[in-house]
């Protein structure tokens, strides 16, 4: 076991453990066409519909946690922005049937890391969509100018909530969340 001074902080551990999963996610069809500059309205709409299916069960679990106001849990629920983008009723979109286990607080924290972190990539995507004149940018716009500050605030809350006893469970849940999200996004 490493002495405490050499134990990676929760964020260092999360970054190191999930980097391969992030790289893999960036290789899905939507992100490939993003990188190639061949983004289409249809591929973007499909990606958003899939994200919606993952966000709805996750956000239902988030609401159960009754977090204090410092977590800004309401603002962090963004599935409804996808309905605005797609102009469809919720009933038109399929929900992900296989979610990572989110029952415990450390498990939820790991999933929050993944979905809050995705707001950073969303900013990049929103800029690419603007360049391609694709209007589906409400969800990807994330928290707008608040994206950076909200991510920092989340990281601080996460660091304060992590303990030597729950750190491994948080990191494992983040990895599983990335895996299940990838599997769901890549399923036609
Ligand atoms: C659903 C898909 C995605 C998820 C769940 C996701 C998740 C994450 C997470 C958790 C982080 C935080 C890493 C940290 O600890 O600093 C992050 C950062 C980031 N992601 Fe993604 N991401 C996704 C897609 C993308 C895509 C497609 C791009 C590229 C266009 C991208 C670009 C970035 C960038 C630029 C950062 C900031 C990296 C840094 O500041 O060092 N992400 N993402």
Bound molecules: protoporphyrin IX containing FE
Level-1 CATH class name: Mainly Alpha
Radius of gyration, in Å, reads 17 Å
Tell me about the largest β-sheet: none
The name of the CATH architecture is: Up-down Bundle
Give the full name of the CATH homologous superfamily: Heme oxygenase-like
- What is the succession of H and E elements? HHHHHHH
Helix vs. strand class: mainly alpha
Number of beta strands: 0
Number of domains: 1
Shape descriptor reads globular
Q: Your description of this structure?
A:
- This protein has 7 helices and no strands.
- It has helices at 10-25, 29-36, 41-64, 79-86, 105-131, 147-161, 167-186.
- Helix 3 (41-64) packs antiparallel against helix 4 (79-86).
- The protein has a single domain, classed as Heme oxygenase-like (Heme Oxygenase, Chain A, Up-down Bundle), CATH 1.20.910.10.
- The protein has 188 residues and is mainly alpha-helical.
- The N and C termini lie far apart (43 Å).
- Protoporphyrin IX containing FE (HEM) binds next to helix 1, helix 2 and helix 5.
- This is Heme oxygenase.
- InterPro entries: Haem_Oase-like_multi-hlx.
């Amino acid at each position: 076991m490493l002495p405490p001074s050499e134990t990676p902080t929760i964020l260092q551990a999360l970054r190191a453990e999930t980097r391969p999963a992030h790289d893999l996610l960036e290789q899905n069809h939507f992100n490939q066409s993003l990188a190639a500059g061949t983004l289409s309205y249809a591929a973007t709409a499909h990606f958003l519909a899939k994200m919606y299916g993952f966000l709805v069960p996750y956000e239902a679990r988030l609401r159960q946690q009754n977090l204090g106001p410092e977590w800004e849990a309401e603002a962090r629920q963004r599935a409804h922005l996808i309905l605005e983008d797609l102009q469809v009723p919720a009933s038109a979109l399929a929900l992900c049937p296989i979610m990572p286990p989110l029952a415990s607080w450390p498990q939820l924290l790991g999933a929050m890391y993944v979905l809050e972190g995705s707001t950073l990539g969303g900013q990049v995507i929103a800029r690419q969509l603007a360049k391609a004149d694709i209007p589906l940018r409400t969800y990807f716009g994330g928290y707008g100018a608040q994206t950076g500050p909200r991510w920092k605030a989340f990281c601080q809350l996460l660091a304060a909530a992590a303990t030597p006893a729950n750190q491994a469970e948080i990191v494992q849940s983040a990895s599983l969340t990335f895996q299940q999200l990838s599997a769901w996004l890549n399923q036609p």
